[in-house]
Structures
1.
Amino acid sequence: MAQRTTAAPTLNPRYRVGLDIGGTFTDLVLTDEETGQIRLHKILTTPDDPAEAALQGLAELCRAAGLTLGDVGLLVHGTTLVTNAIIERTGAPTAVLTTRGFRDILEMGREQRYDIYDLFLQFPDPLVPRRRRIEVDERVDRTGAVLLPLQLDQVRAAVTRLVADGVEALAVSFLHAYANPAHEHAVAAMLRREFPALRVSLSSEIVPEIREFERTCTTVCNAYVQPLVDRYLRQMEAALARQGFQGRFYLMQSAGGTIAPEAARRFPIRLLESGPAGGALVTAFFGERLDRRDLVAFDMGGTTAKICLIRDGRPELTSMIEAARVHRFKRGSGLPVTVPVIDMMEIGAGGGSTAQVDSLGLLRVGPHSAGAVPGPACYGRGGDEPTVTDACLALGYFDPGYFLGGAMRLDRAAALRALDRVGARVGLDAVAAAWGIHQIVSENMAAAARVYLIERGQDPRRYAMVAFGGAGPAHASRVARILGLREVIVPPASGVASALGFLVAPTSFDLAHSLPGLLDELDWPAVDARYTDMEARGRALLVEGGVPPDQVTCVRRAEMRLVGQFHDIEVPVPPGRLTAAVASELAAAFETEYRRLYSAYLPGRPIQALNWRVLTSGPAPQVTLPHAALGSGDPAGALKGRRPAYFPETEGFAEVPVYDRYRLRPGAAAVGPAIVEEREATTVVGPGDTLAVDAFHNLVIQVSVPRRPASVRHPAARGDGLA
């Protein structure tokens, strides 16, 4: 089945679909490469079976375009399946085989406290209970030399007991397997012969890098979700085939590239942050069209908001992410997963984030979300807690009759009742509570974004913000004003932009291997051999996914540090055969990057290389979007009407113009307050802000500098209580 869906007859199909399953909504975008036309669709996610909404949405999208799924040549899919399984502990029964003496590595961790002042510190429980963590007699030293041969009979007996206990997946992580994987490969060969139904993950394949805790934890996470992802992909492939789909089917990776289903089955942990990656890619895509190389991506959906920095035209990558944090915003409180991932900040703030009054009598918003079921109170699906969406509806920002283009009507009365209940607890009426919720969530997102940018040495005021997601355009100008950003860009298809980002992602795979040593003393033939092997494996994976061999490119990188330091710095490695002569070139590149990051350098200190990386990629897809010459600045032809909307700067509700985005022509301009509606999102232009439509149909908002701090109190408020 997988071979059928990854063997399309053409590399550049006319019709392409991006499919993004989120916590609240499933987003779809269809592009026609001949006409440049884009068709969008949004449907509530079905949490019990995410594929149900995905398949229904695909059928509805194609039907609206007058197509069948058989006309679609490319389908790129992003999903929260992996991250949800790890957070909710819904993966397969999993076991671990490890070197004797290292059974408790998952609990020992780094032996560091992520908060030295917390007397009740907690870490996430390992995904595998101790009784299923089995020690094996074998030993390899850090150079790869075998100190104690593997006892396969011992392994066979242990796995027999585990399978009888119901284990479906097995993680094999032996000490120093990155230096010599022979023992892990021997175990895998035996298991394939004698236990073919068992899903096996080898640390030497998943993450052949130094650091035992991170390597073992990542391998366990991969094994834990492998059966789940395999079943899901088989279900999707079978359903797509029944509907006539014969094109290429790719999955989105956390690092911003796509992979074929067979590779996703082997490395499902690489799908951990597949959905958010699309937002970063689409920001870089729109930035390139506008010749803007440095941007801040702001993606606010129904469950979370994501912030990502685009520098020099591309999102930055990091080699590690934490899953299932005990404390969402405390680094070190989660399960470390060593996979390449786009470097972004995520906060529990979305349209479905609920508002509560805490034990101190203060109004709080998030991180809990009402999701798709039961959803916000205004959805009329059983939810009774006030959410950010309820607040936007009560403030007049959303039209109850035009949500999702009118496909879903919102209940404003239900939203006001929910807001009134929570407001009564802090002495506020429904509208005051709604503004408090809107302001709190905006402040929370701005505070998180400020920390994210400053930690990377960036002044927020230097950047323009690209806002998208179902809730992003409604909050972007307020968040930008708090941050000090002067410009907000809302691109076309903003409500489903992450799904559009999937369609500009190349097929790619990132491989890494540890070979530590001082830069001046490295075994360069061994380094060269590592790169040759990694590039061959990467090429094979891409060709397996349908990329022509002559269109695969390889980009090399290395992680290095000054001896005695903990944090690694990534530098480019030149192509071709590597010899000792390249050491000086790498040292110069390392010094340049070190000075860029820290503004100073410690000359004379030896440099240690740690990990060697290579990114194998296919050609980047070409997505054509329409543009037009600038015309008249009069937006009157797009005016839908006027409605009351609340802004503290107007001291209450004011009648504001509401524009139809699809009728706004390039060159149109307006002064806020104003509202711009499209089917999947609503853009709020604050008082004093100015709106212009550029040649690429982007909404460009120039954010005004406030003369005085905006009040969070409504004139009718009966008391304080906002945090």
Note: The longest strand covers residues 508-518.
2.
Amino acid sequence: MSASSKKQLRKEQNAQMMTERQKQAQAEAKQLKVLTVVFTVIIIAIAAAFLITQVVSGISRSGVVEKSTIALTVNEHKLNSVVMNYYLHDAISTEYNNAYNTYSDYTASYFKSMGLDLSKPLDEQEYAGEAYETWADYYKAIAIENAKGDYALYDLAMADESYKLSEDAEAGIANTMAYMQLYAQFSGASSVDMYLRSMYGNGSTEKSYEEYTRISTIARDYYSAHMDSLTYTDADLRDYEADRYNNYSAYNFQSYYLNHTSFLEGGTEGEDGKTTYSDAETEAARDAAHKAAQQLTEATTVEELDKAIAELSINAEKTEKPTSTANTNVMHTSLNKEYADWLGAADRKEGDVSLFPNKSTTTDADGKTVEVVNGYYVLMYVSTNHNLEKLANVRHILFNFEGGTQDDKGNTTYSPKEKEAAKAKAEDLLKKWKDGEATEESFIALVHDNTGDEGSKETGGLYEDIHPQSNFVETFRSWAVSSNRKAGDTGVISSEYGYHVMYYVGDDELTYRDYMIREEMRSKDVEKWYDAIVDATTATLGKTNRLNTDFLLSSLANS
């Protein structure tokens, strides 16, 4: 037997000598190996799935798809879905905030009256009209127009060598981004990017939002700069005023309302305790209201009118006699047409009185719609203000109230002692100024280190073009537009903010009337200019499937 044969035989003998236990152990080992391989495959699969999820989630957060999806092209600018989501969100929030400023707690009811539910996604609600399919389409259209306008103006501004972004606008951009930092902190977000993603969607970053803010700000600033550049001669103003003279006048008049329900007599009390009146009783009340109103037209002065009101049968037993209501400086354009036409008539004179029936429609016993008079508005003309007073220019130094007590709603109230402290500081500073040079320059020198009004600190406390309708607190506005005010006048006044040291710089060149005419002319001319620019701008819609059209208005209500 050869050596190789012997070797082979030993292998066979060794194999035969394996015990059953060894065979079993070997089988178990083989099975374990198989299970180990399977388990490893499963673990790898799980790990891979987790890794893929993380990668996909990271890609989603980064907004790669949104950044690469062009939603709108304006001229040469390609606006991706991230930028258009900024425009969409801000279009929605602007409309919501405007509604809230008007309707406050009734904002939801306001939108409901328009057919819009705040708790449902915009893209799931049918638009109340034929122009759009859903409310998302409506807001998307606004966003597109806003973007188109912004980039059209931005391109013009960049091409205009004489244009430079104003300091106020530049500061506005910085403030907006600073607020984003604060919002991120208050919301608990770890970064501005995270906060912006939660607000505007994936792909939103601090850098892209700042660019969006800058372009929008430049557009608005360029618009304002062009508007301010529009000038008109006195002849231009008079020509424009000629066929709309009354639009810039205001009226002083007395008013009183007589409701026919005040004259109801008789009636039948039902089981529910409510009193109902027959048609005859209601008609008698309407006749009585008309007769009473006619009696008031005999008055020729405010005193006579109030006396006649007090002597009406419906007021005879009242301890506190009602009087007419004084309406002061009511603009012609804010009145309904009937009132405005009557008050603005060329032959109108002091003491004239007229009746204006308050009408409505109802259904009679035969089912026909009939017009009824529910009462009468009584108006007495007093005078017309043609708004010929000059605009006012003032400077001020504000001493804010300090301390205060805050309630559960965040409202702060100040004690008489805290208010007196602010008043004392204001009076002391005014005395210091009077004891010195007492000039406008010396007043300006005191502003920077003393005023609490950050908005006017850098301009020496200056506010210009103040008129009777200006958006200032009443005490501030009234002091500024007082008819006997002259250059160099000073004083201390109080407001909800604190005490103001006032300095009257002088009258502006424009009257309030001419200011209104000029601003209306500017508004119309700049609108024509803007419309022509937008019409000449090329805008091409791209893919809008990545826009956040499932937005919930309730998210704004809860913010």
Note: The radius of gyration is 38 Å.
3.
Amino acid sequence: MIYLQVAVPKTLFNLYTYKSDFPVPTGCRVNISFGRTSIIGVVMGTSESPPLDCPLEKLKPISGVIDEKPYWNDQTLELIKFIARYQHAGIGAIIDLAQPVALRKGAPATPRPVTAYRLADPSFTPANKQQQDLITALRNQPLTPQEIRGLNLSQSALTTLLRKGAAERIDLSTAERDIYADLTFTGKLTLNPEQQEALEAIRGSMDQFQVFLLEGVTGSGKTEVYMQAIEEVLRRRKQALVMIPEIGLTPQNIARFHHRFNVPMAAMHSALTDRERLDSYLGCRDGRIGILIGTRSSVFTPFTDLGIIIVDEEHDPSYKQQDTCRYNARDLAVYKGKLAGCPVILGSATPSLESLQNAASGRYRHLHLSSRACVNAGAVETEIIDLKGLELNSGICAHLLEEMKEELSKGNQVLVFLNRRGYASQVICSSCGHVLQCCNCDSYLTFHKYNGTLNCHHCEAVTPMPQTCPACGAQTLVIQGNGTEQVEEYLQQALPGYPTIRFDRDTMNSPGKLRDALEGVLNNHYRILIGTQILAKGHHFPNVTLIALLNIDGALFSNDFRATERLAQLYTQVAGRTGREEKSGRVVLQTYAPANIVLQTIVTDGYGIFAENCMAERRYLDLPPFSHQILLRIEGTERERVHSSSHEIYQRLQKARESFPDVEISPPYQALMEKKQGKYHMLIMIQALNRTSLRKVLPAIDSFLEDRKNSGGTSCYIDVDPTEILQ
């Protein structure tokens, strides 16, 4: 008899023992009976000896084995166990996150036949640009249907090429194909001395674990360093993982990599179908994929022989999972590199203070790219407009509008950044003062004019815009505040003749739309760009010569100590979208606090000086990265129960303080939005100068949760290294 320790894909901490008449390898899925249901579990360990704490007659047999061989290798299993330990989370919840949805549902962990298309007649003369683009791509290497979609190539052009014999369908062998056999590299650029020095440092650590913080100003050529480092990895017949913060950046990155490398590559993000994600997953596991480009979930992907991990825009908060297990994919990438014995590159123009501190302490090697890669890059100037006493139209003052007119008249493009989508941020009754609010959240509803709805941007509730006030019945509803939709409407009226395009979640709701929009910008089809953070990350806009930042004052006066760091990163990233080639650029920043010392430091001295000042302040106040935090989130549908539970756990922790006197515990406080998605939220912050002391608190939390697990009504979640302390 074999005894299996099985992880159940639920928010449970324990492994459960089942018996089997035959050995089942660790990492395989099994069908089990759990309570009154049949579910799929994952074998995390085996033993020939029965457990001491459970009578043998109570042990259930497994119902069946799904996998003949493990679909997770030892490195991935160890990564999952590490996350469970570090985040103090149930291993079942981690497995639920780490598995592609298709595997959770019981799909076989075997690859399906791979259909691809290759160029059959290199002499074929294309009839249009779509055919030419497809031929150019196929000339480099065969492409799968997923890759053709990912590169935004024309399906009709493919049909025509197939019909005329210029292209042909092939079946790629999944077992015998050598993906490195015909390795070629195209489009390599000459590196400047700083880039070359960074590349040589990375090359020197190719077969060992080393973390590099590659700090480079926007336009300094970090991507080219990534590319040439990956070239070295592929020459060694190893694989590369490239992590990016947003789905929207995936298509352009895939296109760049397809242009440079003729190895099979894949994407991993939420816009793919379940089957496409599984294909990418299995392709990396089986060594059929050379380069994987993905968002934070890609960190869980198993590889045959991983040679490098690159985390682009490492500072980006999108790498932090904000529900269930709140892991940080950037930090997991570092541990994954340690397990694989390969270098990890964390790249950013605005590194997080945590990464800067790791570099200062010697844990990371700090590499610098201090100048733009284009030797003729234009200068970038910043102008601060004091809004006090000025009249605004949709958030834009007259002076800024005149500057936009001037740049547009020269044939240039203008970018307007406002991190608030929708038309208006509030709808208020001018008769009784009632503000329309979400019934599920402590949040005002945002008016979206294009479809006449009121939207909650927290729970995604949507209701029609009423004609009368729901409180008093008067027909006196007015809108206040502005969003990207309103700014777009105003600029279309104020600057007629200049095509506009809006980049936000309402307009760019698919990778295809974003690809088409970015192509239109590069072709100068659109002259005015309006958008949210989608526009701030990694895009190359050579014709943008003026960038306007609207409504940024909230970050200067936030209670969140990370708010100014995020503002500095946002300003630097947005400003980096201009002056990237020969044309000079200008950034115009509207504010009611032009003399604010933080703002002046960011604008005048740059991110580096700001970061030094911010680090000194954090050190003085014992804030991260000079201390460590655990945030307890207590939530439930009944406000009184949530409050009483949070005070109970606080009192329990206070009584146990003699076991950890060097740990600070805050009294419970309401989340900034106490009610969100139908639940009330209270928070308790736990902080210590070292992790060892901090983790001594966890048994007391476990004891409290064990005592209350059958009381119902509330839940408590542990967030280790929180990045949001007010929500």
Note: The mean pLDDT is 90.
